[in-house]
Design a protein that fits this description.
By secondary structure, this protein is of the alpha/beta class. The protein has 15 helices and 15 strands. It has helices spanning 5-15, 20-23, 25-29, 40-48, 53-57, 118-126, 135-152, 206-210, 232-242, 256-266, 280-286, 288-292, 317-344, 365-385, 414-427; strands at 61-66, 76-81, 84-89, 92-100, 155-163, 170-176, 179-186, 189-196, 223-227, 247-252, 270-274, 298-301, 348-354, 389-394, 437-440. Helix 9 crosses helix 15. 43% of the residues are buried. Belongs to the short-chain dehydrogenases/reductases (SDR) family. Belongs to the enoyl-CoA hydratase/isomerase family.
Length: 454
């Protein structure tokens, strides 16, 4: 089965859940998912549509656990195992749905506070052979999506719906940082929903940069290109270099607002280049102002595609190869376009890699493989062109790519990593490593915060 972007738009209109996580590509791009995801309630409704009508009519309890997102246009499969349905996507479990038909008191469907458009919802589900679901199930699922989407703007992680004798509508939302729990009753159902909220990373500022490296003019007159420099580590590095009086060309694909805020914060030393680094032809044209500006003191390759776990399964292979291709394109293309200018200028190269490269967690082999491939290109370039190169195998940082509680456990501030890179740039060496290619791979190599008495 497959749900398309048009299905998400139709579901939003029918359920009144206009959560931008499902509809707005720009909003979703700045979350760990990188693009809109299918609403959990719509996935559940589509899966329940695999049940015969008489079996679906008896359902009084639904419990769903969401293990990974499903993206529009991506195929998924539904397996029916008596009291449990499983949605499989790209070779791994996406959703587990436990269902039950326990006897329950009669329940109504009236509410003054919220009413989905069941006609439109049934028309949407008809395209996916799920329009035989009873009104009460459709109403409950639409309400659950609206309750979570419009009150938390989060992604469902767990859904529980059970028939109850209450008809009145009530709702309670409890938010704990990036987690939210929504409880309530509506139209004869009692619901509890857990969601993961998007909590934007703190923006980079001159103050946050100055905590690790005081401003100076050591890079005055230097032209530096930062690929992927509008947010996260790229923005921290661009800002840090700008505080050392460098002219920093920030190349970015999507984050125009972030790039503009970066320029407003750090001043005219930030120059913006809006271009997709995977498009080699357009990239060459976009970087013409950099070539015209004269020598290139340094290039920092920071860009990376959105991260997600992918298992070793035939259905996941296309996504893995696409990730590796994109990861290499956003690094190799800029290096190919600027390599001669960089070498002729006696410049340096910085590559953002990952500590996961030596021991990738389960599901992240494609990520480690992509970083390893780019490291190979950078190392070969450095040795053949005699360009001092730093490979930064950064620890987990507090950026939007590490959203959620699991990703925010004692993260490293991107400003600290950026200051470490800039310190290397200023000295062009790491003590004890005189080779052309330096690698920072442990936390004890990072610069420490400036003393308050400094």
């Amino acid at each position: 089965m497959r749900l398309e972007p048009s299905d998400l738009v139709a579901f939003a209109a029918a359920s009144r859940d206009h959560n931008p996580l499902h509809l707005d590509p720009d909003f979703a791009h700045h979350t760990p998912y990188g693009r809109p995801i299918v609403p959990g309630a719509l996935l559940v409704a589509t899966a329940l549509g695999r049940l015969p009508a008489e079996r679906a009519a008896r359902l009084t309890r639904i419990r769903a656990s969401f293990h990974r997102p499903v993206f529009p246009g991506t195929e998924f499969h539904v397996a029916d195992r008596n009291t449990q349905l499983t949605i499989m996507c790209e070779g791994s479990r996406a959703v587990t749905i436990d269902i039950g038909s326990e006897p329950a008191a009669a329940c109504g469907l009236q509410s003054e506070d919220y009413q989905p458009d069941l006609v439109a919802l049934r028309a949407l589900l008809r395209r996916h052979r799920a329009d035989h679901l009873p009104d009460r199930l459709l109403t409950w699922l639409a309400w659950s999506s609206w309750a979570v989407g419009m009150h938390t703007r989060g992604a469902l992680t767990r859904l529980t719906l059970a028939a109850c004798p209450h008809v009145e509508s009530r709702i309670h939302v409890q938010v704990n940082d990036d987690r939210a729990t929504v409880t309530g009753t509506y139209a004869g159902a009692e619901g509890t929903f857990q969601a993961l909220r998007h909590t934007p990373a703190q923006p980079v500022t001159t103050a946050s940069v100055g905590r690790y490296l005081p401003p100076g003019d050591a890079l005055a007159g230097k032209q530096i290109l930062v690929v992927g420099g509008s947010r996260g580590l790229g923005a921290a590095l661009a800002g840090t270099l700008a505080t050392q009086a460098a002219t920093v060309w920030v190349l970015y694909r999507h984050s125009t607002g972030h790039a503009s805020r970066l320029a407003a914060e750090f001043g005219p030393g930030i120059r913006q280049i809006h271009c997709d680094a995977t498009d080699l032809g357009r990239l060459s044209t976009a970087l013409e102002p950099v070539r015209q500006a004269g020598g290139l003191a340094g290039v920092a390759l920071i860009a990376t595609p959105p991260l997600r776990a992918l298992g070793m399964h035939p259905d996941a292979v296309p996504a893995q190869l696409d990730f590796i291709h994109t990861s290499m394109s956003v690094a190799v293309n800029p290096l190919a376009v600027t390599g001669k200018l960089l070498a002729d200028s006696g410049g340096w190269l910085v590559l953002a890699s990952s500590a996961a490269i030596t021991a990738p967690p389960a599901g992240w082999t494609h990520y480690a493989a992509a970083k390893a491939a780019v490291e190979t290109y950078a190392t070969d370039f450095a040795r053949k062109r005699a360009v001092p190169t730093l490979i930064m195998r950064a620890p987990k940082m507090a950026t939007s790519l590490a959203d959620g509680s699991a990703g925010r456990q004692e993260p490293t501030p991107p400003e600290q990593v950026a200051a470490t890179v800039t310190n290397w740039v200023l000295h062009n060496r790491i003590p004890g490593r005189p080779n052309k290619v330096d690698i920072i791979s442990s936390a004890d190599q990072l610069v420490q915060p400036q003393s308050s008495n400094a």
